[in-house]
Each structure stands twice: as C-alpha cells, then as structure tokens.
Specification:
alpha+beta; 5-stranded antiparallel sheet; HIT family, subunit A; 2 helices
Amino acid sequence: MSCIFCGIAAGEVPSDTVAEGEDFVAFRDLQPQAATHVLVIPRRHISGIADIIPKDGDLIGRLMVAAADVARGEGLAEGGYRLVVNQGEAGGQTVEHLHIHVLGGRQMRWPPG
C-alpha cells in the first residue's frame, strides 16, 4: 500500500475514526497540533487540492460539510475552529492524499505559518 490514507479509508489501517460517510472518513490526527485535530479525507485518492477538477466540486462540498459536522460533534462550533488544507511540500503537506484539518480547542494565531 503506497498511501496510508487510502489504507485508512479502506479500513485496512486502524484509525481513531470520528465520522464516516459514503465518500469520506474523518479520524484523529496521530500528531495533533491542537487539543482537537481531526482529518477529513475523501475515500477516493486525490493527491492534493491542486489535483481537483471541476467534476470533484460536489465531493469537495461534501468534505466541507463533513468538516463542519465534525467540528460541531467535537464541541468546537461555539468557540470557533480552523479548517486547513495544505498543498505540496512548501505548503506543509506531508501525506499526498487530500485532507482537511479540523483544528480547535485553543486560540488560533494569525498568520498561521
């Protein structure tokens, strides 16, 4: 298996799953950067945000809805949270599978990087 997130999406690699749907899985990050740090990934492999195409628009919308649902489920909606998508090495992407970071439970700073 070349993509760890594809293995998680397929149920072949264990994860602390928070939510899942037909086309996404949300699970806790193994190296959390905030009190709450959940990753929302598509089940279908997409290397990164730069690789989405117009037909992926509905999927990307569902991933954002899933991220908002996760934030509500984790109790972050009232206090606030951050959604992050990293692209490429210079953007901080460490796994080449599109993922949305749901970060909360602490005060976020700006600029983020």
